[in-house]
Amino acid sequence: MKIVTTIDELRRERRALKGRVAFVPTMGFLHEGHRELMRRGREAADHLVVSIFVNPRQFEPGADLDAYPRDPEGDRAVCEAEGCELLYMPDRDEMYPRGYTTVVAVGELGENLCGSRRPGHFEGVTTVVAKLFHQVSPDVAVFGQKDRQQLAIVRRMVRDLDFPIEIVGVPTVREPDGLALSSRNRYLTDDERARAVWLSRGLVAAHQAYSAGERGSEALVEVAREVVAGAGGDIDYVECVDPDTLRPFEETAGPAAVMALAVRIGSARLIDNLRLDEPLPEELRR
Amino acid sequence: MKIVTTIDELRRERRALKGRVAFVPTMGFLHEGHRELMRRGREAADHLVVSIFVNPRQFEPGADLDAYPRDPEGDRAVCEAEGCELLYMPDRDEMYPRGYTTVVAVGELGENLCGSRRPGHFEGVTTVVAKLFHQVSPDVAVFGQKDRQQLAIVRRMVRDLDFPIEIVGVPTVREPDGLALSSRNRYLTDDERARAVWLSRGLVAAHQAYSAGERGSEALVEVAREVVAGAGGDIDYVECVDPDTLRPFEETAGPAAVMALAVRIGSARLIDNLRLDEPLPEELRR
Hints:
Number of domains of chain A: 2
Distance between the termini of chain A: 39 Å
Shape of chain A: globular
Largest interface: A-B, 26 and 26 residues
Number of strands of chain A: 10
CATH class of the largest domain in chain A: Alpha Beta
Helix content of chain A: 25-40%
Oligomer: homodimer
Number of helices of chain A: 10
Largest sheet of chain A: 6 strands, parallel
CATH superfamily of the largest domain in chain A: HUPs
Mean pLDDT of chain A: 96
Radius of gyration of chain A: 19 Å
């Protein structure tokens, strides 16, 4: 595995890769969820490129940028083990040199759910992803469904701006008790970790209600919210949204629907989501 | 010369071009200025791709979108004569399908000069240029210095978002009397056309003053403005700006300086500009 830190080195090494290239952009502190993205990337292409960059532009002022967990050595070992051939670890000056002003924004899709709670977050995401796409020139890029809004926004950006890149979305990887894997789970104390199980249980409860025929969006949200309250955190949002537009259903949930939530538990802000109209994933059936 | 109208056809034909590809994006109604861009493109690469698309998103509401001159047959002949191998003529639905929301914006650089008079114009430019770049995947793209702010903005976007594309700027082509070539010159009546000569003469007057040592930015603007007034149009702006930032000099013009102007004559809004610190171009020495 080659490790590069500058755009020039990256481009040189990238040109040497013949065939299809898959790309997994990450913020590091890699866990099993990232490993799954890498495996899907390798399946979809001949070569795998991974980037690790904690993008300051997608953290709001006062958010957990400085506290965001880092483990460059462990990350290198994970990438190597997952068959990554080229690992790109730029620093901030390489990504945002002086005089930088350009922004890529997808509009409405970035304003719902997390967008309304984290102003500027998704503009930071689309801008850095556009840059990484131009730097890496992948044929395929892989994103997790856990960050469903991010995935939808990247798909919209790629479609609207005609990036010649295929986007692959990968199902959320979960702990045995259902908690979605996240680098931010590391912020949880043991007690908070135990209570965090109620997030995915809230989604499952809504899934059961939807499967039983409930279509009232308020009723579905209420079912989830009551269970999620068991986590004892601050609920940022629990919403039943259209999977394409991410717009909340006003009265009746559609034939395709997502329950999405964000909850603060201790110092961690955790997100999760579930398609209500698709079969419950294996890990959530216990 | 192949002519294509869809992104799929374009990509198929583009893949068949081996070696370096130059790209000249245009809004059609091609004149000698565009021909010069194409010649420079051919010099810089092995193949030449030209696009013709009158981009609705860079016209403000109520601007001359519907009146913008078109001549598809003449344009095809020009492209063919200039050695274009692939001519791309998408329609609006191909460029902006339903649900389109993404915007690319360069911030401050798009807010001076024409940006402050044409709200949304440069966001329309950067967005369509980003799309065309992704559709065509050129190695080199060629833009005219006549649209100096556009050129600066495209360079900024390319640098900030790391597009793997070299941008070439080409000196303005002028009529024998100095008027910068523009598709919009066609809006001028004979009388207006005769008076339009005072635009470039104003720039030359400022150039003479600068060469004689004048560095007061207000004084330089005043020299230009007095001559430009001879055109009898509505002066939109005459400004002495930094060539990199396009910011007006507050008191003293720098060692590098541009005089830029926009004037409405009849139904045409004409722009022109001149580097004051570089030798006067041949065509303006008469």
